[in-house]
Sequence to fold (644 residues):
Amino acid sequence: MGSEVNRVWLGPDSMITALGHSSEEALSAIGEGRTGCRRAFDPSLLDRPFVAGRVDRSRLPDLPGYTSLERMFIATIFSVVESSGIDPAGADTALVVASTKGNIELLAGSQAIDPRVYLGDMASRVAARCGFKSPPIVISNACISGVSAIIVASRLIRDRLYRNVVVAGGDSLTRFVVTGFEAFRSVSERVCRPYDAARDGLTLGEGCGALLLTADPALATRPHIEVAGGAVSGDANHISGPSRTGDGLHFALRDAMAEADVTPAEVGFVNGHGTGTVFNDEMESKAFALSGLDGTPVCGLKPYFGHTLGAAGVVETIVSAHALRTATIPGTPGFETPGTPHPLDASPRSRPTVLPVCVKTASGFGGCNAAIVLTRARVTPLPATEATPSNPAVIVETATVSILPDGRPFAGMIRERFRALESPDPKFFRMDDLSKLACVAAGELLKNTPPAKRTGIILENRSASLDTDRRHALQIEVDDASPAIFVYTLPNVAAGEVSIRHKIQGESTFFISDDPQAATADDYARMLLRRGHLDAVICGRCELNGEDFAAEMKLLETR
Amino acid sequence: MEQLIATLKEQLIEALNLEETTPIDIGDDMPLFGEGLGLDSIDALEIIILLEKKYGVKLPNSAAARPVFYSVRTLAEHIEKNRTK
Fold:
C-alpha cells in the first residue's frame, strides 16, 4: 500500500427530491430560498395531514417492475454514469448504495416476505439495471448512511481498490417510517427550523442523490472539489437520544479535519445535520464548540428537502460541494434567533464565503456520527496519509465468537449465554433480539479484554433489522407505533447497544450483503486497522430473523 | 389510589418490557428516571402512550410535564385528577 494515496475528486451528481428532479432544479430553488416541504394529507401514510418533502412521482421515469424508490435510484445513478462517461461495467468501478429502509413499504406484517424488502436484493437489481458488474456495496446506518457511504467510497478510492465509485443514497416516505417518527413525538407541525430558538421538531422527506467519487481529476466537476477527510464515531450514550456532551460528533469532526489537514479557522462553513429537534441541534452546537467551530458559519438544509434519511448525506453533500464551487453558503430557511447553548452563526439568507473548505456532518439513531471535509482545488497536494511504516501494523485475531441455532428457542438460549457473561444489565431484556445477539457476542469477545481506546464495530448481515421491522409493521396495522419497537428498525442500533455497554466510540458501520460468505465487514475492518483509523475492531456477521439467526464475529487488533 | 398504583406498576412492567422486575421491586415513591428504576427517554414516550390509551390522559413530552413522571405515585395522582377512562 505504501505512502501513495489516490486523491478523491467529486464528479457529476444528480438528485430527485421535493425540490425537483435534478441537482440544478434543487440548487436553483435553494438559491431562491424556496423550500420543498408542504403540508398534505395522505391517509396511506398517516391518519392526519403532516408537513413533509415529497417527491413528485409523476415525473419519475417509467420503469415497469421497479418500485418508486428504485426508479429514483436508477434515474439518478444513470444520470451520473451518463454525465461522467464512466463504464459502469468496469472492474475499477463500484456502486455504493445507502438506504435506511429501502422497499420497506412492501413489508406487510403477517405475510410472506417480499424478497425486494431485502436491501441487498434492491441494490443488486438497481446496480444491474444501471450496468454495474461489481456487486454493490450496501450501507444501512440510520441517518448517517449517506455520509458513511461517501466515506467508505473515498477510502476504497484512496486505497486504490477502485478508481470510480458512484455513491447513491435514497429513502422514500412510507407509513412504516412516518408512524415511527410520530411515535417519537419529534415531528414538527411546521417546516423544521434548524438551530433556531423556536425549533420544535423535524420534518420528514424523501428522495435520492447520486454522486461520482473518482481518482481521475479529468472526471471531476469544475471547480475541483476533493473529499479531503472523513470520520465516523459513536456517542456510546443512548440509541435515540443525542449525546448530552456532543463528544462523539466532536471526535468525528476532529478526525476528519486532521485527515484533511485543516484547522477550524480554515473552514468556511459547516453544513450540519440540523434536524430541527431541540436535542439534536443542541448536541451539534456543543460538538462544534468542542471542535473549535463555534465561530464558523453554519447552515442546515433540511427545511428545503425534509430529512431524507438515507438520501440526506448524499443530497446535502452535493449542495455543500456546489456551495464551495460558487463560494456561497446556503441560507437556512426559518432561522431567526440562535437557539442552542452555543449560539450558532446561521442565516436565513445565503452568504458569501472566501474559504475553500467546508465540513458536512450527520448524526443518527444508534448514537452514530459522521463528518467529511470538502476542499476546493487545493494547490498543494495533501501530505501522504501515512508514510510506509517501518514496522507495518500486524492485524491479529484475538478472539472469535459463534452463536448459532442449537435447537433451543432463541429466547432461552440467549438468556443463558447472557447470564454466563455475569455482567448485570437491567436494560438487556428491553432490547430487540438482534441487539441481544450482538451484545452477547460482543460481551463474549470482550470478556477477558477491555476494549482498546480506539475500537470500532463493523457488522454485516442480509436481513438488516427485519425481525423488528415485522413487529413494527404488525404493530402499525392494529395500533399506534411504539417508539420502543421503532427505534430498533435500524440494524446499526444493535451496534449502538454494543457501543453503549462497552463505551466504544470508534467507527461503527453496518453493511448489508446477500451473500452469507461475503466478508465485507471483515475486509473493511482490516482496512481501517491498516490505515490507523482504529486500533481494534469487533467485526463480522450478525443476523437474526425469528429463529433464523447467526452471530459470527471476531475481535481484530493491531499489534 | 392504592389499587391504581398497584395496577400501574403491572402496566409499566408490561409496557416497558421490564422482564426482571416485579411490582414489589418498584417503590411507590421510587424515582422512575435517572436513579431508581433507571428509565430513559424512550420509556417516557411509552408511558405517555400508556396514559393516553389506558386512562385517556394526554401528556406532552416536555420539561413542564416532567414532575408527573417522577414516581408511580406522582403518575397515579395525575391520572386520578385527569383520567377520562
In short: Chain A touches chain B through 16 residues (CB under 8 Å).
